[in-house]
Amino acid sequence: MNIGIFDSGIGGMTLLHQAMLMMPREKYIFYADTDHVPYGTKSREQVISYVDAVIRFMADHDCKAVVIACNTATAVAAEQMRRKYVGLPIIGIEPAVKPAVAESEGKRVLVVATPLTVHEKKLQNLVKRVDDEHLVDLLELPCLVRFAERGEFVSDEVTAYLEKQLSAFDLEKYGELVLGCTHFNFFKDTFRKLMPPGTHMIDGSQGTVRQLMRILGEKGALADRDADECLRWEAYKNDISVRYFESGREILDADRLNMFHNLHERLEKMRCL
Fold this sequence. Notes:
Blueprint: E1 2-7, H1 13-22, E2 27-32, H2 44-60, E3 63-68, H3 71-84, E4 90-92, H4 97-103, E5 108-113, H5 115-119, H6 121-130, E6 136-140, H7 142-149, H8 156-166, E7 174-179, H9 188-194, E8 200-202, H10 205-218, H11 233-236, E9 241-246, E10 249-250, H12 254-271
Parallel strand pairs: 1-2, 1-3, 2-9, 3-4, 5-6, 5-7, 7-8
Antiparallel strand pairs: 9-10
C-alpha cells in the first residue's frame, strides 16, 4: 500500500522529502494540485472542495494514510475530511509555533505563512494557546508561493520581495523564524541571508512525519526499516518508490520527473542550512 502526500503545488515536496528520509521502505504517491495552486489565496469553500477531490483520489489509489502537506489545507479542511473519510488516517501539518516559542528564550518569533493560513482561526488559536508571553508575530507572504511554482528560488526579485516584507520588523529582536508554508522551505538560503545570525528556522515537516509514523505503527502498517537508514539521502534516494501526479495526471515524462529530482536535491541542500 501507499502513503499519499499532497499539496497545492511543489511545496509538499518538503514533507515528501522528509518522509523519504525517515521511512525509505515505504511507497509514496505525491500529488501536486497544480490546476488550483495556490490554495492560500482561495476561499475556504474552494479549498475544501479541492482537498476532498484529492483525498478521494488517494483512497482510490490504495493509500493506507494521507498527509495534507499544506498548512492552508490543513487549517481549512483537515477536520472535515477526517469526519468524512472514517478509517483512513489523515495527517495534517501546522506551523511549528509551539516548539519555536519553547526554544525562543524570550526572543520574538516570526511566523511567515499564506494569507489564508494567517487569517484562519486554527493558527490564531494555536498562537493564543502557546504564546503566553506574546512573542509571536504573523506575516503573510503570498507571492513566495508563486516564485516557488515557477522555480525561482534565488533571484534579485525574491530577495527584494522578502526584504520589503520583512522591513516592517526589527529583525534583531527575533530568534525564531517559523516557515508556515511548505513552499517556503525552498527559500531558506535567502531567509538565512536576511535574518540575523543565529536565527533558528523551523517548520512542521519532521513533526508531521513522526506523527505519521506513530499512527502507522499503531495500526501495524509501518514498513520495516533499519535504524541506520534515517536521514541518509544520498545512500537511498534512487531506491525509494514514488509516483508523481499533477491534479490527477501521472507524470511519466523524463524531463518532468527530472524536475522533481532537482527539487529533492534543492530541499536536501536547504535541509542542511
